[in-house]
Design a protein that fits this description.
Number of strands: 12
Strand content: 25-35%
Largest sheet: 7 strands, mixed
Distance between the termini: 32 Å
Low-confidence stretches: none
């Protein structure tokens, strides 16, 4: 299995691969439940909770500055992929469009299909985080979260919600789908924060 689909990192790659991870030769797809189908015409993005309520369309997002991103991608199931090339919109650019209550300390990511995952404001509003709509120069495939997903490179990939369609800002931490089912609240790869200790 390791030889066919995964490989051990080389000495040069070791410093970029968190403990317990193997390098994927392809780009595996892991999804719980059905894969939603959403066109860009019907896609909507809602801001709720401790923020001024707002709904954004695909055109609203596409009017924001677009950037090329190259980021390493780490899955909690012990595979990593280095130098993944995306096109997207910085979280920090999107945040300029919305009004968030200073009491907000956490964010719940919402997705088509009902998936949720929680993240702290501190982890969310970082310059390297982005909303991706292209992968390797092509529109983001459905199985990888198209038409749009969040990418949070410094945390395990379940925090990078596929099919994202909203952000709910909260004062206290609420747990998302995997966090309620035994996964770590934060998910930092270098600390191997895979599963809850409580």
């Amino acid at each position: 299995m390791i030889g066919k689909f995964f490989q051990k990192p080389t000495t040069q790659e070791n410093e970029r691969v968190p403990p317990g991870q193997y390098l994927a030769k392809g780009f595996p797809v892991l999804t719980y439940g059905e894969t939603p189908t959403i066109s860009t015409d019907e896609w909507k993005f809602q801001v709720s909770g401790l923020a001024k309520q707002a709904i954004f369309t695909w055109s609203d997002f596409m009017s924001l500055p677009q950037h090329e991103f190259t980021a390493d991608f780490h899955c909690v199931t012990r595979w990593s992929k280095l130098d993944v090339k995306w096109t997207g919109i910085k979280v920090t650019d999107f945040m300029k469009l919305i009004e968030v209550d200073p009491k907000a300390a956490h964010v719940m990511e919402h997705s088509y299909g009902g998936y949720t995952t929680n993240i702290s404001i501190e982890d969310f509003v970082r310059e390297e985080n982005f909303f991706a709509f292209k992968l390797l120069g092509e529109p983001l495939p459905r199985e990888h979260g198209g038409p749009m997903r969040l990418v949070v490179p410094h945390l395990y990939a379940w925090k990078s919600a596929k099919w994202i369609n909203g952000l709910e800002f909260t004062a206290k931490e609420d747990l998302g789908f995997w966090e309620r089912n035994g996964y770590h609240r934060r998910g930092e790869p270098w600390a191997e924060e895979r599963y809850s200790t409580s």
